[in-house]
């Protein structure tokens, strides 16, 4: 499958938790490429794409965090709103339901990180619509 | 030694004979306690003498002893022998008021070691075992009490002591430890330490865990057995009675045999102090029969339990105590409902998504008691829906048990404060507490 690994970390509204996580990554020279914090009134989840997901996950877990590694789609488009909109349209018209999405810029392109309800369907639709799926960066 | 029993004669003694032994030892204990400034005047007033004791039923004539009596007579007020015969002192941490002090003669220490060695033998430990003790070696009896007993058993004993999980992991791995003594909450914490080192605790040499000193549910035991791939046996002791070695589950894992050659067991209604009907729950009240430095009569343990009916298939005749349902002084009254923390634990342990730590906080908000239960998640998730459904389902099942709705909050690792001692389960912040 053409997917990438994403780290999800369970956050409580605890003071200094986020900065502890960032410091731990910095100390190990792990670069963060994208981050997203989502929360409800009760719970927070920090989602990360880093330069070394397996190392980052192991490190954060050893530091006492609840860490989950899962698969998401990374789609690369031109860095403008029109391309962003086209990609989202292509997916939703193809029947993909998106649970959440966040973006970041990389090498002059826009990268969409997408967690769909079904990875298989999303991957198939993305390929059919000619979208560029990324499996990782060197 | 190839026998099933450490001391077959005592452990399988017919009840009639066992009661005769108890009467004999009670007489002897009264004789010793005549030397106690605390008991002598009380016995005189009640007409209690060794000769006046005819049957175990005579225990009803004795006065009760409470923890407050121990505090009020701190440090040596209850002792029955001169201090030159006393060789050891153990003490409880006194969070409120004076600590309690328990004294031992050399004979007391020998009997204690023997009783705990018998308990270890009872769960299948032998002199070929390597027993690692995770209890603190100090005033707490879980350190030295286990040490001397394991040595008496003839096992190689590792006095690793409390805390420092990394060191425990190393010792277990290097020495091939086959049995661990620990409190239940530490059993799960130590398992987590193995997992962090990339070692599955089920692949270690540990085959037996002696767990005690903290009330725990059957579900928590099952969970400990599962993560360790080992047998976990509930062990009961209290420093007032000696320390660990008062009662233990046999390999049937159905109730703890309390060593009745050493104690007279009563189960009383904590309000009326009358015996509860046979087999019903009440407060465990114990009289020591084999101690001399500081015998205690009708000591109110505050632990709530019941005696299991019927004979145990293991052949031991000493009665079995059911898993403790908490302590009479642990009982909480929240929104007019009487409840024990262990009821909440039982529900939480049914959820594989949760780890073992939890904290119950009770606060006064407006004019009402509000309960919040923080439960530690076992695994992270990327799914808010799962978190919300899980919270809802836990809340629903707790409501069925408690008859009111607590607030449930899932938390990550390390949020619930941990200490090397017993796990703190209740944080009562109500104005009147
Ligand atoms: Zn038995």
Short structural summary:
The complex is a heterodimer of chains A (138) and B (433). By secondary structure, chain A is of the alpha+beta class.
Can you offer a commentary on this structure?
The complex is a heterodimer of chains A (138) and B (433). With 138 residues, chain A is α+β, with helices and mostly antiparallel strands. Chain A folds into 2 domains: 4-69, VC0802-like (2-Layer Sandwich), CATH 3.30.2130; 72-134, VC0802-like (2-Layer Sandwich), CATH 3.30.2130.10. Helix content of chain A is 32%, strand content 38%. Chain A contains 4 helices and 7 strands, in the order βαββαβαββαβ. Chain A has helices at 17-27, 53-62, 81-93, 119-128; strands spanning 4-11, 32-39, 44-50, 67-77, 98-106, 109-116, 132-133. In chain A, strands 1, 2, 3, 4, 5, 6 and 7 form a 7-stranded antiparallel beta sheet that branches. In chain A, strand 2 (32-39) and strand 3 form a beta hairpin. Chain A is globular. The mean pLDDT of chain A is 90. Chain B is an alpha/beta fold. Chain B has 2 domains: 8-329, ANL, N-terminal domain (Rossmann fold, 3-Layer(aba) Sandwich); 333-428, GMP Synthetase, Chain A, domain 3 (2-Layer Sandwich), CATH 3.30.300.30. Helix content of chain B is 30%, strand content 24%. Chain B has helices spanning 8-11, 15-33, 39-46, 67-72, 106-122, 141-153, 165-175, 184-196, 218-228, 341-348, 384-402, and strands at 86-91, 101-105, 130-133, 156-158, 179-182, 208-212, 231-238, 243-249, 256-258, 263-268, 282-288, 299-305, 320-321, 332-334, 337-339, 354-365, 368-377, 407-411, 426-428. In chain B, the strands form 5 sheets. An 8-stranded mixed beta sheet of chain B has the order 4-3-5-6-7-8-9-13, with helices on both faces. The radius of gyration of chain B is 22 Å and the shape is globular. The model of chain B has no long low-confidence stretch (mean pLDDT 92). The interface between A and B is medium-sized, with 22 and 17 residues. Zinc ion binds at residues 250, 252, 257, 312, 314, 316 of chain B.
């Amino acid at each position: 499958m053409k997917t990438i690994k994403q780290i999800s970390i369970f956050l409580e509204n605890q003071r200094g938790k986020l900065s502890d996580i960032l410091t731990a990554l910095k100390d190990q020279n792990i670069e963060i490429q994208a981050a997203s914090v989502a929360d409800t009134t009760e719970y927070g989840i920090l989602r990360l794409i880093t330069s070394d997901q397996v190392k980052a996950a192991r490190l954060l877990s050893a530091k006492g965090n609840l860490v989950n590694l899962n698969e998401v789609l990374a789609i690369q488009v031109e860095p403008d709103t029109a391309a962003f909109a086209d990609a989202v349209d292509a997916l939703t018209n193809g029947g993909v339901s998106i649970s959440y999405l966040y973006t970041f810029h990389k090498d002059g392109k826009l990268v969409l990180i997408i967690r769909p309800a079904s990875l298989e369907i999303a991957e198939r639709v993305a390929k059919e619509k000619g979208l560029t799926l990324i499996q990782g960066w060197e | 030694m190839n026998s099933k029993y450490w001391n077959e004669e005592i452990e399988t003694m017919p009840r009639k004979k066992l009661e005769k032994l108890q009467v004999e030892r009670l007489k002897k204990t009264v004789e010793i306690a005549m030397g106690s400034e605390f008991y002598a005047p009380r016995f005189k007033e009640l007409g209690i003498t060794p000769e006046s004791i005819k049957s175990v039923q005579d225990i009803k004539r004795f006065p009760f002893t409470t923890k407050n009596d121990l505090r009020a007579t701190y440090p040596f007020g209850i002792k029955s022998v001169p201090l030159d015969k006393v060789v050891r002192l153990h003490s409880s941490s006194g969070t409120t008021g004076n600590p309690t002090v328990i004294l031992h003669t050399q004979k007391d220490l020998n009997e204690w070691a023997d009783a705990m060695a018998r308990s270890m033998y009872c769960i299948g430990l032998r002199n070929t075992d390597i027993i690692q003790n995770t209890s603190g070696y100090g005033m707490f009896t879980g350190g030295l009490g286990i040490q001397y007993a394991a040595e008496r058993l003839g096992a190689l004993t590792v006095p690793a002591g409390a805390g420092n999980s990394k060191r425990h992991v190393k010792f277990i791995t290097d020495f091939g430890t086959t049995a661990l003594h620990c409190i239940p909450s530490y059993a799960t914490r130590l398992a987590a330490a193995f997992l962090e080192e990339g070692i599955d605790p089920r692949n270690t040499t540990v085959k037996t865990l002696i767990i005690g000193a903290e009330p725990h549910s059957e579900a928590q035991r099952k969970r400990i057995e599962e993560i360790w791939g080992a047998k976990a046996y509930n062990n009961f002791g209290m420093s007032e009675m000696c320390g660990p070695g008062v009662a233990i589950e046999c390999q049937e894992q159905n109730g703890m045999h309390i060593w009745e050659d050493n104690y007279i067991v009563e189960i009383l209604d904590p309000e009326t102090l009358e015996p509860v009907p046979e087999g019903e729950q009440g407060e465990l009240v114990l009289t020591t029969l084999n101690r001399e430095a500081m015998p205690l009569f009708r000591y109110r343990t505050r632990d709530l339990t019941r005696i299991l009916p019927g004979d145990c298939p293991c052949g031991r005749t000493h009665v079995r105590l059911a898993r403790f349902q908490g302590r009479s002084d642990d009982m909480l009254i929240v929104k007019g409902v009487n409840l024990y923390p262990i009821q909440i634990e039982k529900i939480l342990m049914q959820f594989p998504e949760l780890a073992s730590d939890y904290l119950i906080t009770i606060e006064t908000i407006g004019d009402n008691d509000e309960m919040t239960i923080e439960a530690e998640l076992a695994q992270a998730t990327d799914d808010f829906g799962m978190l919300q459904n899980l919270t809802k389902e836990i809340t629903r099942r707790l409501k069925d048990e408690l008859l009111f709705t607590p607030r449930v909050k899932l938390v990550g690792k390390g949020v619930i404060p941990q200490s090397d001692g017993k796990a703190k389960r209740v944080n009562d912040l109500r104005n009147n507490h």
